[in-house]
Specification:
It is a single chain. The protein has about 270 residues and is mainly beta. The chain is built from 2 helices and 24 strands. A 7-stranded mixed beta sheet has the order 1-3-4-11-6-9-12, with no helix packed on it. A 7-stranded antiparallel beta sheet has the order 2-21-18-23-15-14-13. It is globular, with a radius of gyration of 17 Å. The N and C termini lie far apart (about 45 Å).
């Protein structure tokens, strides 16, 4: 079963006047993980798609998505897949890959139908592509590890870069995930924006009762979302993206836009936020 929800782009002037329910309807990515289903959110921010496939021991095929307007979803797109569950397999273009928890698979433009099988919980991130790059499985050991933050500022964290120029080739998709160390709660501090790229988050590895306070909005007009396990946030190019969580959590970040320069950020210091 395939379900696709479309999210229109929102101007920051409109976002300033949103109440909580409206803010969540536009920017919270929830309900993506459902047993036996593929659920996608098609956004009008750089035509980025986020979603999940949960085969639950069976098999699910992602092929035609009407919103993409092509015979097969990857005809003019690339895709990153992160397994946040038990081991499972992904097959495309005549190949099959076993993904353990934390592994990332990149599929280039033209890979054809994608089959998800086994007990994985597969997070999907996809954006348009103008050239084909090689398919590649990137394990945690293959990723580029970056240590940032400090215990005294409660933001000691490990960033693992997977679909990233320092690790592999992609067209415009960048993807990795960040894990907070014990006792640290703040991610992405100091905050930043990058008007040249949109970004999407997926939070996971959380207890059911835990939440992350995800900060968004213009630097001088901040807003917030309370986000649960296996829920995400859509971050427009004009929005900051920072957060603080209750207990342990990890978040997957994925970006699409004008460039693939991970360091291309305009930082906003905490004292300048409103």
């Amino acid at each position: 079963m395939l379900t696709v929800e479309t999210r229109q782009a929102v101007h920051p002037d409109f976002a300033r006047a949103m109440d909580t329910a409206t803010l969540r309807r536009h920017f919270l990515a929830d309900g993506m993980f459902a047993d036996g289903e593929i659920r996608l959110i098609y956004t009008h921010y750089d035509r980025f798609v986020m979603g999940a496939a949960v085969p639950a021991g069976g098999a699910l095929v992602l092929d035609r998505v009407a919103e993409a307007g092509t015979p097969s979803f990857l005809d003019r797109r690339e895709m990153g897949i992160v397994n946040i569950g038990d081991a499972g397999t992904v097959s495309a273009a005549g190949e099959s890959w076993l993904l353990d928890r934390g592994d990332v698979l990149y599929l280039g433009m033209g890979a054809g139908p994608v089959t998800f099988a086994g007990n994985g919980r597969f997070y999907i991130a996809s954006c348009p592509a103008h050239r084909t790059c090689p398919n590649r499985l990137v394990t945690l050991a293959d990723s580029k590890e970056v240590k940032l933050g400090a215990a005294e500022t409660s933001n000691k964290r490990t960033i693992n870069q997977f679909i990233h120029p320092l690790v592999m080739e992609s067209c415009q998709l960048i993807l990795g995930y960040t894990s907070l160390e014990e006792g640290s709660v703040w991610n992405t501090i100091p905050s930043h924006i990058h008007d040249r790229r949109m970004e999407a988050y997926l939070y996971f590895g959380m207890e059911e009762k835990s939440r992350v306070l995800h900060l968004m909005g213009e630097p001088q007009e901040t807003r917030h979302l309370f986000v649960g396990n296996e829920e995400g946030a859509i971050s427009p190019p004009w929005s900051i993206h920072s957060g603080a969580g209750i207990g342990a959590y990890t978040f997957i970040w994925a970006m699409a836009g004008d460039n693939i320069d991970y360091t291309d950020m305009d930082f906003i210091q905490p004292g300048d936020l409103r």
